[in-house]
Amino acid sequence: xxxxxxxxxSDTGNDRVVKYFRNATSGIIVAGGHGRGSALNQLNAPYGIxxxxxxxxxxxxxxxxxxxxIQKWLEGAIQGITVAFHDEQLRAPISILLEPTLxxxxxxxxxxxxxxxxxxxxxxxxxxxxxxAGSNFGSDSNQFEAP
Length: 147
Hints:
By secondary structure, the protein is mainly beta. The protein has strands at about 5-10, 15-20, 30, 45-50, 60-65, 70-75, 80-85, 95-100, 105-110, 115-120, 130-135. It has a domain at about 45-135: Thrombin, subunit H. The strands form three sheets. The protein has a four-stranded antiparallel β-sheet with strand order 4-5-6-7, with no helix packed on it. It has a four-stranded antiparallel β-sheet with strand order 8-9-10-11, with no helix packed on it.
């Protein structure tokens, strides 16, 4: 939800993000909606969403899961901007949280489903820092399976 209580929903099966304004009975497509694919106006199984309420108000960051990237969509945009992509580090991102730093850079925290880790990533950087990495599959406190 954003500060105006609009609800954003990852419509994963339809490869889009839909926004419902407060008290609305139908939504509007704010990202994707052009079929499944990897073009900048497409998504492939979007999951986690973060609504920016700090820097670019109205922008959304989307875990474009099967394209193995994070897409930023500015409010009213017709296509997204890839802010994180890396085949060896970012595999099937499933959730995202952003935190502004003291110098107003948005730090992304991303759960990489296939690689059993949580990453700390500066938007547009080529690599991330693994801040929590599971030790093989399992249920011990130092292990993850598809976080």
